[in-house]
Structures
1.
Amino acid sequence: MTKLAYEDFKPEREFPLGPKHVTAEEIVAFASEFDPQPMHLDEEAGRASILGGLAASGWHTSAMFMRMMCDSYLLNTDAQGAPGIDFMDWKKPVLAGDTLSGRSIVLEARPMRSRPGIGIVKFRHEIENQRGELVCLGENATMVRLRAGAEATA
Amino acid sequence: MTKLAYEDFKPEREFPLGPKHVTAEEIVAFASEFDPQPMHLDEEAGRASILGGLAASGWHTSAMFMRMMCDSYLLNTDAQGAPGIDFMDWKKPVLAGDTLSGRSIVLEARPMRSRPGIGIVKFRHEIENQRGELVCLGENATMVRLRAGAEATA
């Protein structure tokens, strides 16, 4: 199977993300290792917080979004990693029992001057819960190889 | 023990982060769940990539940084969650065997208009490896409660 290359990421192309069901066990497991604040570990502490229930760490939501990207298109892409996150807004709490889905939309793409044969693709990412409420919104860029032989004309 | 409150986060105050040793097992475990791209799962694939070795997912580095923040000051703070990430740059690969450390520096702080009794503290975060090379740089804000009774004068 031919992998997606830089040339396949045209502006406005959309890739669906999810669905991903979020369990209390997953929220507590991630938080125990990476973000052991009470509202991410305990239902009662979550309800007492401004998050309103046992809520995923924003970093957990971000990690789940990464997995959704992998499953949607990234594992089928000649991807070379990402230089970072332009921004990520955690708009609403992700609570135990929620189901997440969304989309990655190509904003722009250009060949890199510093790395011949590699292009940089900038995405906007939107994640919603089962009620259609936007819970996570972000933008970042990913490095993707041009098709073999494409360097000369890039 | 009295927790840190909004008033304790004065601009320029620094909190040390780490050290955190990063093992190959941790890199593969995180990647298997959240970012199963070959360079995060396999030493040889990592060496063949532009990352140069078995490298942590940027989201894994970010999650480890979150844990370093918790251990340094956040679990001892009356914190109410974070609205997101202003930006995060993964400047250099984090490879198996690296040891990470760094600092969070308060950039600014102000009471929130929309949430009486809560202030927003903006941080700059810097993470370095054992050679003193900057591997991760970011900024984000955290919501922190004012001391009880402080609302009236905020």
Note: The mean pLDDT of chain B is 95.
2.
Amino acid sequence: MSALTAFDAALLNAGAGNLNLLKVSSILPPTTDYHEDLYIPPGSLVPIAYGTYTSANKGETISAAVAVGLPEGNTFGVIMECSGTCTKEEITEHIKGMVKEAFEKREILLKEIKVAAVQHNVTCNYGSAFAGAILWY
Amino acid sequence: MSALTAFDAALLNAGAGNLNLLKVSSILPPTTDYHEDLYIPPGSLVPIAYGTYTSANKGETISAAVAVGLPEGNTFGVIMECSGTCTKEEITEHIKGMVKEAFEKREILLKEIKVAAVQHNVTCNYGSAFAGAILWY
Amino acid sequence: MSALTAFDAALLNAGAGNLNLLKVSSILPPTTDYHEDLYIPPGSLVPIAYGTYTSANKGETISAAVAVGLPEGNTFGVIMECSGTCTKEEITEHIKGMVKEAFEKREILLKEIKVAAVQHNVTCNYGSAFAGAILWY
């Protein structure tokens, strides 16, 4: 396994392994709908905000998270991504703070934060954690 | 503040903080118009060429620049991006050289170089410099 | 020459230097046609899967490769990219293994692997190797 095939395996676990991902920065367009299990045909070109961490250190705990901050009213929201050598609980707390900071800076009221976080313990020569939010325009 | 929220703050200062940015390499399509203050709705997906530098070293001077080389005639131009631990003056000189080199390699005549450069002195735990050229197709 | 202008020179050699490249992850959409010399107008925005390596070590041998795994039947395929300080032969072997691993993980039958690999010996202050597969939707 290489760094890229570990990342590929993490993508497959997340349900995004058969898409062509375009990494974007992190704004939630106004009036976006939320779908947890949207079917997107393989090979589609999809914008995605994601956090990922790939490690070659056996035994290491790695995490990745993505958080969507939903606003009050009809304005846009903010998506943050994060990853590192920490636990799922730690990264969840950290990313919530990032979303709050981004809302404060924009002076937008925050209604709700949705977090997707994952933790992985590297058991072979490469491991990868991945969390993403696909934007389907 | 984290590396990503510092980058987010730099994006907001540049007027690109509420867009979904797709980082692209660096060709200016033929017959492109230039707008300094184009309004683009929040959450839009926009291709952008940019340079950015994020530092965790308090007191450090960081810079980012983007330069658009406009060609003679109706052909395409070249966009270069650059960033590092230097001053705005230094990065401006450096990026002009990069544009000239790219034009020479393509044997296209250079009419004008537009440079946007920014310098930041890191005052808290993270700082980020950002300069970009949005391509609105 | 800087790291970016070395990369730019490698892109020009590959025939992708006058396009706006959007780096994507690596799925070959079903029923894709293969064209070795497709003309794409300068400045076009094109998704591309690529491997690249830029080095500032004079005398170093660097390589980059991209491999397209074509499936049996009408399903999607997988594209892998790779780069490093090795020879063209080494990277070609390595990337074939990556494609096989990606197909096994997806339980798709592999019909053929197309590899584009390149080797470069760094002769001046910067050198860059690049191999890519453009996806033209």
Note: DSSP finds two helices and seven strands in chain A.
